[in-house]
Amino acid sequence: MLFLLRLLARLPLSLLHAVGAFLGWVVYLVSPRYRRVIGHNLDLAGLNTRRLRSAVVSETGKAALETPAIWLRTHERAARLVVEVSGWEHVESATAAGRGLIVVTPHLGSWEVTGQYLGSRMPITVMYSPPNLKSLEPLMQEGRNRGAAMKSVPADLRGVRAMLKALKRGEAIGILPDQVPGVGEGEWVEFFGSPAYTMTLVGRLAEQTRAPALLCYSERLARGRGYHFIVESMLPARPPESSVRALNRSLEHLIRRCPEQYLWSYNRYKVPAGVRPPGG
What we know:
- Helices cover 46% and strands 18% of the residues.
- It is an alpha/beta fold.
- It has a domain at 79-261.
- Strand 6 and strand 7 form a beta hairpin.
- Helix 1 (2-9) packs across helix 4 and helix 2 packs across helix 4 (50-72).
- 37% of the residues are buried.
């Protein structure tokens, strides 16, 4: 499998995305569960149209195939996949105070490219959860640990401590804010109109360290031309709205721009083990 992935990593991005889109449709057609999860999540978000669902299948396939290929490329080659940048002035302004930077990166476009590009510009510590395929974890660790530039830490107390230390050093940290947290680590708030158990970590770190938080994502460009790296400010909370709901509203704002590149195959609305369901 590793040999095959290394071969795929050598393909031009346009060809890699074409193969990924094809494989995305294969999985969609043969897996009733996969079709059900995508349709259910789009239904809950009020976005389930035939056109969007078709685009989601193709883009999710591209994301699945490009991810290990990015891990297997050198840090420099992976970062060079970014061909357009918007909003970098927000990063410069946020880091000027020296309190570090919280990079909030949803599962939109290529979150792997986002981390690689940021790591080419500044030291960054990123939090991860183990992949479903355990055999991919060593590869993921290799791709996300790039010497002093980029370091990955587990999504547990040890990882949180490592990120706090990075912020105190004035460095950046990266968090995937739409991963479903464990019991006691989240709140039920709306995400596209339906309750989703959402992490409180972003707000807690910002409050504890006074580090600014910015939204970042890398939009996949057509025909394998590369990625557009985009940075924006978080939307402020609208009282009596909580900071957690403001986080989800910020994510919604980004996702509505290119909803086909969001990871709708992830069960964002699930009830984690030990967590009381909303209204329960």
